[in-house]
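The data are quoted verbatim here:
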Amino acid sequence: YYLCLQLRDDVVSGRLPCSFATHTVLGSYTVQSELGDYDADLQGSGYISDMRLAPNQTKELEEK
């Protein structure tokens, strides 16, 4: 568990570089683990904009 948290922190801070594709996959895992499955009735289009998923997070990354 702590290893996963440390890796997540390293990816988000930029200490562990990742490609855009890797950021989207790891970000989707992070969002699902913290917020659960997407439910259109409960969550709007910008429901993950407050979550840090990458050092240079863009709207494109959030949409994927």
User: Anything to note?
Assistant: The mean pLDDT is 89.
